[in-house]
Amino acid sequence: MSYQGLYRIILILSFLCLWVSTRISEDWENGLGLVLILSIGVIHGANDVRIHLNKSERSTKRILSFILKYIVVVLLGTVGFFLSPQITLGLFILVSGYHFGQEHFEKYQLPASWKNNLFVAAYGLLILLMLFKINSSQSLNVINEIVSMKITEQQLYYALLATCVILVATGAYQLRGIPLKTIAKELLYLAVIFIIFNTSSLLWGFAIYFVLWHSIPSMYTQITFLYGDSNQSHVWSYIKYSSLYWIASLIFLGVLYFFLQERTQFLLTIIVAFLGGITFPHVFVMDKMIKKA
Q1: Is the separation of the CB atoms in 212 and 13 below 8 Å?
Q2: Rounded to 5°, angle at Cα 145 from 144 and 148
């Protein structure tokens, strides 16, 4: 399957998710969103060991060493949300923005430079800030609870505006060799994502983007990197290798939801801290993979 075919499927699934949101309550949206994020979303980082270490490097010692370092970074990132929430949340948003943008534009193989880094980071930040601004009442409650300070909707607006300016300025340079038809498709994708965020709750909107628009294309890229192509047998091999992480994430989801189902705000805070912890080492691994490809 080509990237073009993959994004056709993503568009179809996106509108299916929008239809589902008209048929279920917000509580069900949040529950389904958590299932998607902590299963498919988490699984897309389950092969980081294999991606980071070449086949010749996969000795037991190197694997255990990498896993130990990975766990330490995850724990430090998670704990950081409670020890220094302002700094950790800021880093998480910046790193996540860079990661989302880098993964999305990797298929175009744009020339590496600081301008490209700024462009992909601005794209990813646009996605996140657009989600936060559209769902400002929910997002600001979560953000202000984490950082213990007052961030306003106006500040979100100015941050979004500045990000748009940077994106347009850097994009005019970085995308100068990309056909106008392709750029039009990218604008269409942004419009669809805007519609998703505008018609969904904060958690459901993020889940649709994170799973469909980020995790699935990322898994496609990873499978191609690991196996050379993305045929059915390779997809199943990737899933089987990730099955332990799948089960662990579902157990984590079940326990978390059981104890915190009446405390939605605190539940979202814990989810953000957990995702932040696993994001930091994953971004490092994927950055290395993209530069190898």
Answers
A1: yes
A2: 70
Identify the weakest region by mean pLDDT among 42-56, 69-83, 163-177.
42-56
Distance (Å) of CA 110 to CA 101, 119, 165, 278, 284: 12, 10, 20, 27, 19
**Helix, strand, coil distribution of the chain in percent, nearest 5:** 85, 0, 15
pLDDT at position 279 is 79
pLDDT tens per residue, range 10-41: 999 999 988 888 888 878 888 888 788 877 87
Both tokens assigned to 140: 């600001």
Question: For residues 111 and 173, what is the distance between their CA atoms, to the nearest angstrom?
Answer: 11
pLDDT tens-digit profile of 150-173?
A: 888 899 999 999 999 999 999 988
Domains in the chain: boundaries: 3-292
> 90-104 burial, b for 16+ CB within 10 Å, e for fewer?
ebbbebbbbbbbbbb
